[in-house]
Design a protein that fits this description.
The structure is a homodimer. The first copy, chain A, is built from 16 helices and seven strands. Chain A has three domains: about 45 residues, no CATH class; about 240 residues, P-loop containing nucleotide triphosphate hydrolases (Rossmann fold, 3-Layer(aba) Sandwich), CATH 3.40.50.300; about 40 residues, no CATH class. Chain A is α/β, with parallel strands linked by helices. In chain A, strand 5, helix 8 and strand 6 form a beta-alpha-beta unit. Chains A and B meet through helix 3, helix 6, helix 7, helix 8 and helix 13 of A and helix 3, helix 6, helix 7, helix 8 and helix 13 of B.
Chain lengths: ~350, ~350
């Protein structure tokens, strides 16, 4: 936890990391993913290299085709010569092995490309811990020099909120059948999405779902969405000056980003070009509106909080005598002579925290 | 956090709680849900009254009909004169207001019954915190004297793992359409489910999904499931001695609980009686196998951990100078002169934790 004293081991790792050696990146990721000793030294050391990558979060229910969409997006970014890093936090992802054969073959075509780096993360352990660590893995990819970092995560709900906070742009992927439960999910979806994509849109129900989503988006704004019309059919070849101006106008008009609802068939590539254009447009919006630096700030704050909480847990349970006290107390917890709260109070007391000392300052 | 010094306020609240006043229960729940000062005193005080209620978790994707199923289950428990407490942690739940009208009317019929208590919980804030607090709300319902506590939670994934840990029996509700994504979800589902229910089983695909689930359950066991055949068509009117023996036999034979796959149409009540019988059977299994007391132990441990972590966070961010240090450090984080990890180290240092003192003991 003391970033000033890098171990010789990590110094060498960092050197090779900065030289752009993929094996060093892989080792750094393992270090962070498993929160092995010294992992925070590495994250500390690379902090000043952050902020170059554009981070895109892809989330949605299992079976929505997120991995195919991720692959197709990656291909399109590669075609523009962007280097793409992918973090998949998804038990259903082909990246993590829970895949259908076809998907896995599609992925493999990516993994031979030196401009692509794919890392899947297991979903074991506490979700909070996982979400944080996956963000820090994204930091590594950013610092390593990838232009684009894609975070693929399963589900739509509270867990995705955390993950969405780490992305610059969050794409929520649905399928026509999601219509059934859309009413249900609306609060969570609205908070997370910068862009909606209805994938597998060749199936029945896609148009209906698109309309439902648009109605919900209107309702959220409380009135008509001035920029909504302009968002469909905009065709940008690259993020040039015109696009910048247009995004500026859109932001000015609506006072924010009007969340577009796109349709795609990721298997055939249909709608993918429009998605890429939308992502470009959102990137411009983030910059001109000042939201990008706000999101960066929020990210720094979240990282710091997570690091503090992680270290306090370590002190209580690994360094301190928390485990021992708890094990000894089990009979009393069972009999009702103690409660989890009286045992917890003892563990915290034993830890010797002196908050009063700080209060007095 | 010091459970020995109950405030006079809480003493009166606890008195009325123990007299069985519903307004006191409601106030205690609000206290816990919002983690207001003194909430742990209340939880400490009721700890010795825990363990009488049977806790059933109902989880599954949005739109699976969990709320209808919960309502129908509650009606059946009421018919046997059990008192039922419901905690709904679900943005899609009619209990929390995201409802279709029909569902809401159905719920309302419950809420006029004095033998039923329904509490919905918002899904704001960190998931970890929420999952813990919802468990502690379930503790309150248990201590208050409900025979049955139902925890309804949305989604199937890592977040549900936490919540499932708090239930004695976890029911995973799917719909025939879930088949598409079942392959994807299997790891998570298998870990969570004690019972599968395919709801809306009058729609096409129910039998296919049931077969798929059963194949997956077989694969998990690595061989044939000896007790599986016996689990279908068992008809118990009540949990009597015969049932107890049968569950004992089932546990002995299979060395565990063979997860049944049931079908239901909650709207019409079809399959609900079988679900109730299965829950009874699982309750007996938990007791005779010793798993019930193991689950209780795990719950005590989790509560203690959560209380310690919560208190350490409070000390760092509310009592200590964490917020102040972090706010002051933002320019340095931005410029790259500091990292979240060096700032976190400072915050922990300022907190005055003395883990070395404990290590030496």
């Amino acid at each position: 936890m003391v970033p000033s004293s890098e171990s010789p081991n990590n110094t060498e790792l960092l050197e090779r990391f900065r030289e752009g050696q993929r094996t060093a990146l892989a080792r750094a990721i393992s270090l962070v993913e498993n929160t092995r000793p010294g992992f925070e030294d590495v994250l500390h050391a690379i902090h000043s290299d952050l902020g170059r990558a554009t981070r895109v979060g892809i989330t949605g229910p299992p079976g929505a085709g997120k991995s195919t969409l991720t692959t197709e997006l990656a291909n399109r970014f590669r075609a523009r010569d962007e280097r793409v890093g992918i973090v998949a936090v998804d038990p259903s992802s082909p990246f993590t092995g829970g895949a259908l054969l076809g998907d896995r073959i599609r992925m493999n075509s990516l993994s031979t490309d030196p401009g692509i780096f794919i890392r899947s993360m297991a979903t074991r352990g506490s979700l909070g811990g996982l979400a944080t660590t996956s963000q820090e893995v994204a930091d590594l990819l950013d610092a390593f020099g990838f232009d684009r970092v894609i975070l693929e995560t399963v589900g739509v709900g509270q867990s995705e909120l955390d993950i969405a906070e780490g992305a610059d742009t969050t794409v929520v992927v649905l399928v026509p059948e999601s219509g059934d439960s859309i009413q249900a999910m609306k609060a969570g979806l609205m908070e997370v999405a910068d862009v909606f994509v209805i994938n597998k849109a060749d199936r029945p129900g896609a148009d209906r779902l698109a309309r439902e989503l648009e109605v919900m988006l209107h309702m959220r704004l409380g009135e008509t969405q001035p920029a909504a019309a302009g968002h469909h059919g905009v065709s940008l070849r690259s993020v040039g000056r015109a696009a910048r101006n247009r995004a500026q106008e859109a932001a000015d008009e609506s006072g924010g980003w009007a969340i577009p609802v796109l349709k795609s068939v990721a298997n055939t590539g249909e709608g993918l070009d429009e998605l890429v254009q939308t992502l470009d447009r959102h990137a411009v919006y983030l910059e001109v509106s000042g939201e990008l630096s706000q999101r960066r700030h929020r990210r720094f704050i979240e990282r710091t909080r997570a690091a503090v909480d992680r270290e306090l847990k370590r002190l209580a349970w690994k360094v301190g005598s928390g485990e021992e006290i708890l094990a000894d107390a089990l009979p009393e917890l069972e009999s009702g002579r103690e409660s989890p709260y009286s045992v917890a109070a003892r563990i915290v007391r034993e830890l010797g925290v002196r908050p009063e000392a700080n209060e007095g300052r």
